[in-house]
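Saturday, quiet lab. Running sequence design on the structure tokens for the scaffold JK sent over.
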């Protein structure tokens, strides 16, 4: 009986840990990304943004900038936190011309990392995506939100009926002036 109780307790602990990680590793207290007294970037961020070259042929900016640089402050090979390789990722830092991206997904008319991902802890979607995807098993619905002409009718209908989990262009995003080093 004691063994069964210990085994049950172990399973509960594992399930709780898995559930916590499923929502993502981002800090629930905000300080992992934001620093009110020791900002290292334009948005009171606590990580040093990565203003690297933007190598992909589809990019219009020579350098990774703004919110994308913030995301890549952690998501790079050096930090090792789910590294993003800009050669192979979806285009960011561009004004969409290929497809009609919903206005609420653009930051000042630019497609960025946060066009697809809402990194705040209140978003429990798979990989912080702006739409639920059944833990990545239904990416067609997600892609159909911006690419309806390349998607099947069922995915397009599903994407239209799902509420986006975004901060929105109306959210107050306050830039701070960071002293030049």
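Result came back. Writing it out in full:
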């Amino acid at each position: 009986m004691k063994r069964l109780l210990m085994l049950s307790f172990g399973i509960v602990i594992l399930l709780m840990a898995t559930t916590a990680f499923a929502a993502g590793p981002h800090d629930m207290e905000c300080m992992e990304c934001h620093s009110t007294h020791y900002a290292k970037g334009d948005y009171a961020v606590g990580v040093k943004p990565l203003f690297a070259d933007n190598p992909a042929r589809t990019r219009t900016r020579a350098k990774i900038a703004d919110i994308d640089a913030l995301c890549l402050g952690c998501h790079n090979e050096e930090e090792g936190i789910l590294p993003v390789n800009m050669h192979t990722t979806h285009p960011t830092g561009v004004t969409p011309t290929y497809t009609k991206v919903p206005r609420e997904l653009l930051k000042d008319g630019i497609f960025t990392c946060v066009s697809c991902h809402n990194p705040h802890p209140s978003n429990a979607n798979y990989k912080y995506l702006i739409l639920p995807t059944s833990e990545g098993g239904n990416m067609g619905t997600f892609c159909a939100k911006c690419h309806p002409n390349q998607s099947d009718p069922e995915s397009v209908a599903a994407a239209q009926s799902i509420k986006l989990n975004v901060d929105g262009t109306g959210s107050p995003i306050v830039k701070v002036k960071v002293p030049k080093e």
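Notes for JK: Residues 5-23 have pLDDT under 50 and may be disordered. Helices lie at 2-23, 66-71, 139-144, 153-161. Ask whether to fix the surface positions before the next round.
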